[in-house]
Amino acid sequence: MNPSEIIQNNINSLSYFLPELILTGMIVVLIIADLLLKKENSAWTSLLALGGLVIAFVAVLNQYDLGSRSIFNDMLAVDPFALYFKLLFLTSAAFVVLLSIGSVELAGRPVGEYFTLMTALTLGLFLMASATNLITIFISIEFVSVTSFILATYLKTRRRSSEAGLKYTIYGAFSSGLMLYGISILYGLTGTLDIYEIGTKLAASSANSLALLISIILMLAGFGYKLAAVPFHFWAPDVYEGAPTPITAFFSVGPKAAGFALLIRFFNVAFATEATNGEWAAIAGVNWSQLLAVVAAATMTLGNLVAIVQKNVKRLLAYSSIAHAGYALMGVVLLSDQGVYATLFYLVVYYLMNIGAFLVVIVVQDLVGSESIDDYKGLIWRAPLPAIAMGVFLFSLTGLPPTAGFIGKFYLFAALIKGGPGFYWLAVVAIINSVISLYYYARILKAMYFDQQDEKEPASLAVSPYYVVLLIALVVPTIFLGVYWAPLADLANYSVEFLRAL
Amino acid sequence: MEIPISYYLLLSGILFTIGVVGVLTRRNAIVVFMSIELMLNAVNLTLVAFSKQFNSLDGQIFVFFVMVVAAAEVAVGLALIVAIFRLKQTVSIDKINIMKW
């Protein structure tokens, strides 16, 4: 291709890049607005951020008419798969902005940069969901990482927050170093950075399988770090506990889902060949789906077992979110459309119930000023609505009917059983883990519903109407999707179709 | 005289290993960041060596991105170390341990 064609391709691509351009514009507007507004008025920037997210949402919906295509000289893909994740990121980011507005942790602090970085983080997630070149993959992961480091440390005068930020940064830089080494080996094996070309080259030639295995394991370090999958999960509990709670809610949903998007796209394009009936075969020499299955089993087991002993609700939810990454990974190991479809569905369900659970943590923080399970005692008598909402979210996280979590898990198990006897053991591990998870979720429920509250505590606490609206906005879909999930299932099914060949 | 590519790869492998061992064993946050830089530079060496091997520019372009990102990461990391030092008067990773398990 000559230079003028390359430039022409870039110019033509701009119109397919509209949602990202809107977010970029919004970041600039936010920075300027933050400069102009007085410090005590900086909370107004939240409305600007929210507006930007809504406009970008509309732009993403409009992209559904365009079909699949590759833009910027095969650097990014615009396809239903990426759009599905973009919608997930935008809605979860909007919820997190709403959560942040009322948060007591941020009250009295200048928050202009906070919302600017939130928007920037969303932009980074967009790029992660659509990257199809090793350069864009690396840049988007780092984009998300660096903005997350700053957001985790936003309460820098609090020891926990700055400690969380430092741990996050060290783990993040270390795992991105490992991933880069994996990328460089992969580049050495194939001589290209484009994941489609890597896929064809690896399928055509028999690369040294030991070198390929090392490269895959090193790259898994980078992806596993984003998913918080064992053994790259060490940062998660500390960061989740130390970061401002709305940001914790976003970390447990946005970057995790983006990590899944990247993992699914990259592994299925570069390290698999398409077979028939919506199933793929891993490339010869490296059985990475077994490797991922082991990671999935280890992730859910460790997450659930360590969650049992936690006393801080935020930390407990951190370990539970590690465990849920393990469940969602089950769909990826299957190498089938049905597995990916189950994972996509599960990620949306997980996002609703997990953000909901963190919202209750924020509300209780606001009312009681604590995150300890002991301070949840007798919550049902003092503040009935948050307690009932928490019950719904926890039932959903466990996977009990009639909540959305049950349907999500049902799809995952159905895909796993249909995938053949090779992964029955994984299904057994997952079922045992679901039972374990019931135990520690029930501890919170028991504290809220059955334990006596301390005498000195006030008898009833007033929940602000703002939180009531937000709680209802999250409880309703969590139950509704457990009863009538067909629209979401159809959308997820449609989104499995991603750009496969150029 | 042409230097064979295996020499470059060996050197970068050694550098990378030193970096990894440094991250895992050193207790001073600043030294940890230096070790991470060493890992990234090992990667850069591999990329440039392969780029020469394949006669393509991809690897060299990648190196620019790695350098930019490394600079950004270290800028944030050092700012965090300063913030921690103000709170605790130490940059030792062993002493940054309020949260465990």
Question: How would you characterize this protein structure?
Answer:
The complex is a heterodimer of chains A (502) and B (101). With 502 residues, chain A is mainly α. Chain A has two domains: 1-284, no CATH class; 287-502, no CATH class. Chain A contains 21 helices and four strands. Chain A has helices at 3-13, 18-36, 45-62, 80-102, 112-130, 134-152, 159-190, 195-204, 209-227, 235-242, 245-251, 254-270, 288-307, 313-333, 337-368, 379-382, 384-398, 404-418, 424-449, 465-483, 486-495, and strands spanning 69-71, 76-78, 272-274, 280-282. In chain A, the strands form two sheets. Chain A has a two-stranded antiparallel ribbon with strand order 1-2. In chain A, strands 3-4 form a two-stranded antiparallel sheet. In chain A, helix 14 (313-333) runs parallel beside helix 18 (404-418). The two termini of chain A are 15 Å apart. In chain A, 60% of the residues are buried. Chain B has a single domain (5-88), classed as Helix Hairpins (Orthogonal Bundle), CATH 1.10.287.3510. Chain B has 101 residues and is mainly alpha-helical. Chain B has helices at residues 5-25, 29-54, 58-88. Chain B starts with a helix and ends in a 13-residue tail after the last helix. Chains A and B meet through helix 6, helix 7 and helix 10 of A and helix 1, helix 2 and helix 3 of B.
